[in-house]
């Protein structure tokens, strides 16, 4: 039921300024489907509905150890062959693997079942620590709430950072999380005064993105030594302070490129880079295209 909630929340209505989707739940046999929370789910569409979809998501279920039936396998393959993006998160990835859609590709699933996926499907390169893996027309995500990461990534990839950020704000979620599944294997960081200070410093950094923001300054504001700050930061976010700041700067740059006509030089200064050349270098390295190409791609995207 969590997986259904994740997908319907991200791709459901979020107001006129955000993209709307024709969302449908499908099953091999339409009708009541049992769920893990004891409340049956009424599914109104059969597999024929997949023939019209631009995005098909295989949701996780308790019976994932048993391969899906021939009709489901054929429907997934047919959707993929005609050009639909096919995605799954958590143990839903097993359905894509059973359909042969992950052969020769990288994929992820819930960390607890990564070994089982690799054992059953040796032609799949399983990245057990990834929150999601994008192979173009096949995308897989990690377990449970990482479904949000997968769905927001798909939204960001197709519609740009501004719209993905709008949906994430509507859901009160981060638009992008650094780090991988490994950060969730250990015990959570205890909530104490230091963590409250850490949260305040992160908020301050977001508001002062145009400044250099050296780690020593962030640590000072958190009233911690640099080493303690770095350790607690990584424990709380799964990322180093440097990587977190870099992703924050690039995400803000994406949004400004999509929603404003500001020169790239001005955008670079607003997100804390010394020049457009530095922004371009980071953008090409992390996003695969220069800022101006990114802007053209999303300003040319209709609606």
Summarize the structure.
The protein has 303 residues and is α/β, with parallel strands linked by helices. It is built from 13 helices and 8 strands.
Blueprint of the fold:
Blueprint: H1 2-11, E1 31-33, E2 41-43, E3 55-58, H2 70-81, E4 85-89, H3 93-98, E5 106-107, H4 114-120, E6 125-126, E7 132-134, E8 138-141, H5 146-159, H6 161-170, H7 193-207, H8 215-221, H9 226-237, H10 241-259, H11 264-270, H12 276-287, H13 291-299
Parallel strand pairs: 3-4, 4-8, 5-6
Antiparallel strand pairs: 1-2, 7-8
Describe this structure in words.
The protein has 303 residues and is α/β, with parallel strands linked by helices. The chain has 13 helices and 8 strands. Strands 3-4-8-7 form a 4-stranded mixed sheet. It has a two-stranded antiparallel sheet with strand order 1-2. Strands 5-6 form a two-stranded parallel sheet. Helix 1 (2-11) runs parallel beside helix 5 (146-159) and helix 11 crosses helix 12 (276-287). It is globular and about 60 Å long.
């Amino acid at each position: 039921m969590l997986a259904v909630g994740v997908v319907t929340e991200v791709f459901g209505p979020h107001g006129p300024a955000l993209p709307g989707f024709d969302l449908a739940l499908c099953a091999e046999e339409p009708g009541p489907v049992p769920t893990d929370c004891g409340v049956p789910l009424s599914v109104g569409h059969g597999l024929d509905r997949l023939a019209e979809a631009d995005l098909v998501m295989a949701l996780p279920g308790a019976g994932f150890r048993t391969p899906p039936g021939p009709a489901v396998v054929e429907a997934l393959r047919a959707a993929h062959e005609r050009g639909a993006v096919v995605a799954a998160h958590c143990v839903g990835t097993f359905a894509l693997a059973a359909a042969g859609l992950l052969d020769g590709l990288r994929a992820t699933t819930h960390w607890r079942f990564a070994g089982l996926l690799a054992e059953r499907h040796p032609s799949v390169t399983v990245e057990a620590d990834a929150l999601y893996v994008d192979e173009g027309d096949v995308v897989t995500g990690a377990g449970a709430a990482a479904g949000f990461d997968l769905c927001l990534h798909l939204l960001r990839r197709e519609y740009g950072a501004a719209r993905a950020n709008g949906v994430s704000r509507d859901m009160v979620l981060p638009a992008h999380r650094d780090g991988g599944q490994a950060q969730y294997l250990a015990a959570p960081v205890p909530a104490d005064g230091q963590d409250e200070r850490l949260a305040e410093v992160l908020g301050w950094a977001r508001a002062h993105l145009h400044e250099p923001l050296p780690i020593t300054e962030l640590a000072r504001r958190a009233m911690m030594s640099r080493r303690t700050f770095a350790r607690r930061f990584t424990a709380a976010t799964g990322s180093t302070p440097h990587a977190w700041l870099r992703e924050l700067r690039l995400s803000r740059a994406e949004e400004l490129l999509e929603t404003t006509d500001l020169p790239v030089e001005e955008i670079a200064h607003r997100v804390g880079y010394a020049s457009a050349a530095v922004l371009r270098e980071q953008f090409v390295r992390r996003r695969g295209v220069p800022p101006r190409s990114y802007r053209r791609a999303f300003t040319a995207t209709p609606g």
